[in-house]
């Protein structure tokens, strides 16, 4: 199909036309009001009254009407459905300030006045084109055509060509007017720069909260499942030969599962919007003994030393440090198996230091049951606390080093929800 004819069969063209015709119909009450008010008030000579009725009052009235928030919402919904184009991907909300209201006023004024032009042409041009097309067979009286500019001495065979040209011009006006409004709609009805910035900030907060909740689930529930998997395997292997150890392993599984349920309930509590149930407190370094004992019951030879002074670090740092240690132990279990793990948690020079090492080999070497997000979660926690970390092979061992500041300003960037 010819590119010139394609707009005529495109549904978008006629949807935009209907939007313009609606705008033309909405302008009529402003003209009727002007025709009733201006002559009654005798505002100047007839020429001034005509200008007031045709232009001044309709422009002013439509602009003021467009300042109403409800009009912006209605115009946005109609433009999104009928204009399509860039507007189809935008959701028009209530104006966030006077800038948005002023743009809405300009849009409403533009919509109605461009719409009345298209509406008038849509009413006048088709019958004129039909009359021109019938010129060769009408004959005789050309009074109607002469009122539209047709000269009596022109040959009749020009009529059909002129009619087709008039219809083509009308279609071109409709396509151009619809495309113009579709292009301007996002600028006048879309969000302002301040509203876009606020939306981006809100989305960033939501993503940060989602990432934080994902870290909580990964670190707590992921660790518990790793420990439970190893404990269940150990209990199965010695169930007949060493029932006492099997019972101890089953008890550890129960405790690990209970702790995982508590952590899961904490995360779900954060997701509840009604706040009907308070979230459980997060574990801190004070709870590290239980975590280490669960790891030992999983069959890991754990050499751990924790300074007593770590009990005095800020609560936010203590919570994040607990999760970091938990993730380090989880990684050791998942990727190295039951290899000896050495852990040191010390407090020196206003910094909390975590050092964890384990051999790279072991029965689980080469296996990867995780999604590779553990170290990313540790890095995010360290970044929030303005600390430093390193992780990687070091002389045949895997080494995780974390250094967290514990001064007064060290946790200023930590989200409140983390508590």
Task: Tell me what you see in this structure.
The chain has 419 residues and is an alpha+beta fold. The protein has helices at residues 6-9, 11-41, 46-66, 69-82, 98-133, 135-138, 143-147, 158-189, 193-238, 243-271, 288-297, 315-335, 374-384, and strands at residues 302-306, 341-348, 351-359, 388-394, 397-405. A 5-stranded mixed β-sheet has the order 1-2-3-5-4, covered by helices on one side. The longest helix has 46 residues, at 193-238.
> Which descriptor suits the 3D outline?
elongated
The number of strands is 5
Tally of discrete structural domains = 2
- CATH H level, superfamily name of the largest domain: Histidine kinase-like ATPase, C-terminal domain
Number of helices: 13
Mean pLDDT: 81
Strand content: 5-15%
Examine the coordinates and then state which fold CATH places here, giving the name of the CATH topology of the largest domain: Heat Shock Protein 90
Q: Helicity level, as a percent range?
A: 55-70%
Unreliable segments of 5+ consecutive residues: 362-371, 411-419
Keyword list:
5-stranded mixed beta sheet; Heat Shock Protein 90; 5 strands; single chain; 2 domains; disordered C terminus; 419 residues; 9% strand
Describe, in short, the structure shown.
The chain is an alpha+beta fold. The chain is 63% helix and 9% strand. The chain starts with 5 loop residues before the first helix and ends in a 14-residue tail after the last strand.
